């Protein structure tokens, strides 16, 4: 059974060490990281879907723990918040932000067990981020044994969207432009391990609620990045938003195929293929862009 991924956010390393020791061996919890400031915590929250946070009420160098809780208030899968403080003065504000518990530190004998009971109750209600539903439309065709794990997503493109897409493709594939070295990477988490995925290895990104799935040629990573944030980050690296749910790496366009109805289909690489229909009246422009 999946455990609650837990982040410890406190300026005092001794307090973090004591929390880690108390949580060690709790069967339904897994500590996956520590942070000192709210900014560090937000960076980790962008790459790991945490289910529980232990956080100080007053954090250094920026937003407080209470303000961090306010920043998380709009998330659909909001983690449990356990505030850790040496004073009761912020308890009301913490519970106003939906705190699961408020711990005076160090806790009195037996008090931490009550916190674990509350977290256990929270876990029964906490919705782990599920796998996304079936693609919008899967091609109905016979597949070879090597292709049985492949999926095809067919996305409609309106006329004005085709214009924007072709313009973006032309800019991305302009051989006269100087390209930046492929050194940029995206931090993603898989089974508690942090991976740095080079941008050029990403084929496409798929939105799912407040999260997104990053697809490479052989893997799919669940991240807590929102698609809009990734669009802003990856657009300078030749990524294009072809649909409200999909962000495609234009360097991964691999094939042009003729389709029924005087359409042409432009495909991307990977086990999950994104097919983008291009009308016949625009195929000449597309071929010119691709140098065909």
From TrEMBL:
Residues annotated as transmembrane: none
Domain of life: Bacteria
Region Disordered, residue ranges: 127-152
Signal peptide start-end: none
The HTH LytTR-type domain, residue ranges: 186-292
Domain called Response regulatory: residue spans: 5-120
One GO molecular-function entry: phosphorelay response regulator activity
Protein name as annotated: Response regulator transcription factor
Organism: Pseudodesulfovibrio senegalensis
């Amino acid at each position: 059974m999946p455990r609650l991924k837990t982040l410890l956010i406190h300026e005092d390393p001794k307090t973090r060490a004591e929390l880690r020791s108390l949580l060690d061996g709790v069967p339904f919890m897994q500590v996956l990281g520590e942070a000192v400031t709210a900014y560090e915590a937000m960076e980790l929250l962008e790459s790991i879907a945490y289910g529980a946070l232990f956080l100080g009420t007053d954090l250094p160098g920026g937003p407080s723990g209470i303000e961090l809780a306010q920043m998380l208030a709009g998330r659909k899968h909001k983690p449990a918040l356990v505030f850790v403080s040496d004073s009761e003065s912020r308890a009301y504000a913490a519970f106003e932000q939906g705190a699961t518990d408020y711990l005076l530190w160090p806790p009195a004998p037996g008090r931490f067990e009550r916190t674990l009971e509350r977290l256990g109750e929270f876990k029964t209600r906490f919705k782990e981020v599920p796998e996304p539903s079936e693609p919008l439309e899967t091609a109905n065709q016979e597949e070879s044994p090597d292709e049985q794990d492949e999926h095809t997503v067919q996305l409609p493109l309106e006329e004005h969207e085709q214009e924007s897409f072709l313009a973006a493709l032309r800019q991305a594939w302009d051989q006269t432009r100087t390209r930046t070295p492929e050194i940029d990477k995206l931090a993603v988490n898989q089974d508690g391990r942090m991976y740095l995925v080079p941008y050029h290895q990403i084929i496409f990104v798929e939105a799912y609620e407040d999260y997104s799935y990053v697809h490479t040629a052989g893997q799919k990573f669940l991240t807590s990045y929102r698609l809009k944030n990734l669009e802003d980050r990856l657009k300078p690296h030749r990524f294009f938003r072809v649909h409200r749910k999909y962000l495609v790496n234009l360097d991964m366009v691999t094939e042009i195929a003729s389709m029924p109805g005087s359409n042409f289909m432009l495909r991307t690489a990977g086990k999950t293929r994104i097919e983008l229909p291009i009308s016949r009246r625009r195929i000449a422009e597309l071929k010119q862009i691709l140098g065909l």
